[in-house]
Design goal:
Layout: H1 3-8, E1 24-29, E2 32-37, E3 46-48, E4 55-60, H2 77-85, H3 91-102, H4 105-110, H5 112-115, E5 119-123, H6 128-145, E6 167-170, E7 183-186, E8 191-194, E9 197-200, H7 204-208, E10 210-211, E11 214-215, H8 216-222, H9 246-261, H10 263-274
């Protein structure tokens, strides 16, 4: 297999607090959207699939139907938000807002004690401009963290990510014999050595970037070294790439650069949202019982993602 296999298994970043999101319930209390664990889910889409031990079993879909006709969001909530902001709020807008608020170190620092109780509190501001700012930031992050395949900005092509500072200054050998067996980082020169190749400048912040304790750059590289990493559970694990393509290394570094560069603005926006007037529980629609259980899959010969209406 060639470079295609590198791209197919690249790390995908998603919102994650380091807890099991298999069954999550979103409510609002004291001005915050509360994500409460061990309850039936009825909101949006998150996943642990960047962690090989969790996989798709931790995914919470944004829609309850395969044709995206019914959002997996509290009925009436988007209409309530739309009335407050004077605009239409789509499920994708809401997901982007939540991602823009939560996917940052400032949120973890602000609510580290609350996170120990396995709950995420998301402030739902009544300020339309603050909502839009968070939505834009979240949409950009979702675009970056899906390698340009979702929330694609106008004028961009799907699958493209913005160029960053890191460059491949010395190409990794493209032949099978030159496939990398190890990597190392030079702090003095900010150079990442991958086999015989070099990438610079790579900041220490990029190298230290982690998601729930998983150091992204190191993990990405370890699994792509000649011997690979992790447990083997299938003969498919023995299928390894034979040639390295430097483009995929720079793409990862660019995504992390852009993510980290946005943290100061995200932190300032979080402060603004926390001090703004936020929705309270008694201002929201009641949760219908039907929304507390997932739709049943069709028992006939329907497709994998076909569910009963």
């Amino acid at each position: 297999m060639g470079s295609r296999s590198l791209r197919a298994s690249r790390t995908t970043f998603v919102l994650n607090s380091g807890v099991n999101l298999r069954r999550v319930c979103f409510i609002v209390t004291a001005g915050f959207l509360l994500i409460q664990f061990n309850q039936p889910s009825y909101f949006w889409g998150v996943s642990h699939h960047f962690r090989g031990s969790y996989g798709a079993k931790a995914a919470i879909p944004l829609y309850r139907t395969s044709n995206a006709s019914e959002a997996n969001i509290l009925p009436g909530l988007l209409d309530l938000l739309g009335s407050a902001y004077g605009r239409t709020v789509t499920p994708e807008d809401f997901l982007a807002y939540v991602y823009g608020v939560l996917a940052q170190p400032a949120f973890t620092a602000q609510f580290h004690k609350e996170l120990e109780t396995r709950e995420l509190r998301v402030p739902l501001t009544k300020d339309g401009e603050l909502f839009e700012q968070a939505r834009r930031i979240g949409a950009k992050l979702l675009w970056l963290h899906t390698y340009g395949e979702r929330y694609v900005p106008d004028g961009r092509k799907s699958g493209q990510v913005p160029s960053g500072a890191a460059r491949c200054t010395k190409a990794v050998p493209g032949d099978a014999d030159g496939y990398p067996e190890k990597f190392e980082y030079n702090e003095a020169t900010h150079t990442l050595h991958v086999g015989g190749g070099e990438f610079t400048p790579v900041s220490q912040d990029v190298l230290a970037f982690e998601v729930s304790g998983l150091k992204v750059v190191q993990s990405w590289l370890k699994y792509r070294m000649k011997k690979g990493a992790g447990k083997k559970s299938s003969p498919l694990d023995d299928i390894r790439p034979e040639r390295w393509t430097s483009q995929f290394t720079t793409e990862l570094l660019w995504v992390l650069e852009a993510t980290i560069d946005g943290y100061p603005a995200q932190a300032a926006l979080l402060d603004g949202i926390l001090t703004s007037d936020c929705f309270r529980a008694d201002e929201l629609p009641a949760v219908p019982e039907v929304m507390r259980s997932p739709k049943k899959a069709k028992s006939s010969s329907g497709g994998l993602f076909d569910f009963e209406e």
